[in-house]
């Protein structure tokens, strides 16, 4: 048995690389929780999760005051057992973001250790379905950008060989959103996917109107049109439009995804490894989606999600939003519009200790 000797956590603030706005908020900074776990066989695993500007210290408190003290002495090879033990100790705060984000930071560190011990990259250890995954770009589609800026950014992505671009919607009038998407389709032609993201800003009635207005532009998906707890509204919307409905970044349990899939309320699953509680539940959601013949296109965290998308047979896209370049020594490898799965054992993220120290706030 290779037991956990010690575990520690810190909070770092990573500045955004570009201004990011959507219909509900601005991306202020990435509050990043880093967990480091040491085992009796000399391995050290690093895991992480994040928030986008608030709540990071609450997650850190959950880790330090409750979850990390449970770990010493546990068998580091029993990842599922550890996840269940930790989750079982937090029944009073589940299901919710603070607990899931804390669990994810620990769980990703344990998978890092497991991959290091096996001498395999994460994508092979967790399935190994494919060596690369198509990319789509979000950085060029923020809500504050003009139509001309959107078009210029999308054409650059197309020239780079990327397979899709995502655009935020949520202007005061549906006609404004439709004009933006129409201009993109005219500029890009039929061969680039255009994803549309409303960031939970709409009512069901308005989402149905927007979907009908966007259908002529062959939209790849309509993402988070309604609040995540409006299951019936999503089901009504999905039944009313030919545009695929995408959900997941604001769901925090496997059960939430099951409900959406059972009610045919989504046809693209965007499970986020940090928000669902780690790699362990992420894989469960991905295989659940596979059983419904539904694609997985995870939200954010491209440096980690490339490995998970490549692990599964129904991984369709990796979202390109660079955020870790200031705290890592290597970058995501991109070739011919695809993200390449890392070849080294572990998560495939090479942290820069000096940069992490410089940005540590707690």
CATH architectural label of the largest domain: Alpha-Beta Barrel
Instruction: Please tally the helical runs, counting DSSP H or I stretches of 4 or more residues.
Output: 12
How much is the radius of gyration in Å?
A: 20 Å
pLDDT under 50 segments (min length 5)? none
Could you give a short account of the major beta sheet?
A: 10 strands, mixed
Summarize the helix and strand pattern as letters.
EEEHHHHEHEHEHEHEHEHEHEEEH
Our estimate of the beta-strand percent is 15-25%
CATH topology of the largest domain: TIM Barrel
Mean pLDDT: 96
Instruction: Please give the oligomerization state of what you see.
Output: single chain
List keywords for this structure.
Enolase-like, domain 1, TIM Barrel, ten-stranded mixed beta sheet, alpha/beta, three-stranded antiparallel beta sheet, 2 domains, 362 residues
Task: Briefly characterize the structure.
This protein has 362 residues and is α/β, with parallel strands linked by helices. It has helices spanning 56-67, 79-88, 97-118, 122-125, 147-159, 174-188, 204-214, 231-240, 254-262, 279-291, 302-311, 353-359, and strands spanning 4-15, 29-39, 44-51, 132-137, 164-168, 193-197, 221-223, 245-247, 268-269, 295-296, 318-320, 334-335, 338-340.
List strands and helices in order, with pairings:
Blueprint: E1 4-15, E2 29-39, E3 44-51, H1 56-67, H2 79-88, H3 97-118, H4 122-125, E4 132-137, H5 147-159, E5 164-168, H6 174-188, E6 193-197, H7 204-214, E7 221-223, H8 231-240, E8 245-247, H9 254-262, E9 268-269, H10 279-291, E10 295-296, H11 302-311, E11 318-320, E12 334-335, E13 338-340, H12 353-359
Parallel strand pairs: 4-5, 4-11, 5-6, 6-7, 7-8, 8-9, 9-10
Antiparallel strand pairs: 1-2, 2-3, 4-13, 12-13
């Amino acid at each position: 048995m290779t037991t956990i000797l010690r575990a520690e956590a810190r909070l770092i603030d990573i500045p955004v690389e570009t201004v990011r706005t959507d219909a509900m908020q601005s991306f202020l900074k990435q509050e990043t929780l880093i967990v480091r776990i040491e085992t009796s066989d000399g391995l050290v695993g690093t895991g992480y999760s994040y928030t986008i500007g608030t709540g990071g210290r609450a997650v850190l408190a959950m880790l330090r005051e409750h979850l990390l003290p449970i770990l010493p002495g546990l068998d580091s090879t029993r990842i599922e057992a550890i996840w269940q033990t930790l989750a079982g100790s937090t029944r009073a705060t589940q299901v919710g973001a603070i607990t899931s984000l804390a669990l994810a930071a620990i769980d990703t560190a344990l998978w890092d250790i497991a991959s290091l011990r096996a001498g395999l990259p994460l994508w092979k250890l967790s399935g190994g379905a494919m060596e690369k995954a198509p990319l789509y770009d979000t950085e060029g589609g923020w809500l504050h950008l003009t139509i001309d800026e959107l078009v210029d950014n999308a054409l650059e992505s197309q020239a780079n060989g990327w397979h899709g671009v995502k655009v935020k919607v949520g202007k005061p009038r549906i006609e404004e959103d439709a004009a933006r998407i129409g201009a993109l389709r005219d500029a890009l032609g039929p061969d680039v996917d255009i994803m549309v993201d409303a960031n939970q800003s709409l009512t069901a009635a308005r989402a149905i109107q927007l979907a009908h207005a966007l259908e002529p532009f062959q939209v790849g998906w309509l993402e988070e049109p309604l609040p995540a707890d409006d299951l019936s509204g999503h089901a009504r919307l999905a039944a009313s439009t030919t545009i695929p409905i995408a959900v997941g970044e604001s769901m925090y349990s496997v059960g939430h995804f099951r409900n959406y899939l059972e009610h045919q309320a989504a046809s693209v699953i965007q499970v986020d490894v940090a928000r669902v509680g780690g790699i362990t539940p992420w894989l469960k959601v991905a295989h659940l989606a596979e059983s419904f013949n539904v694609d997985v296109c995870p939200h954010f965290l491209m440096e980690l999600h490339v490995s998970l998308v490549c692990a599964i047979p129904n991984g369709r896209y990796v979202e390109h939003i660079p955020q870790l370049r200031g705290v890592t020594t290597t970058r995501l490898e991109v070739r011919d519009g695809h993200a390449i799965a890392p070849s080294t054992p572990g998560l495939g993220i090479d942290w820069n200790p000096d940069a992490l120290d410089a940005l540590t706030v707690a």
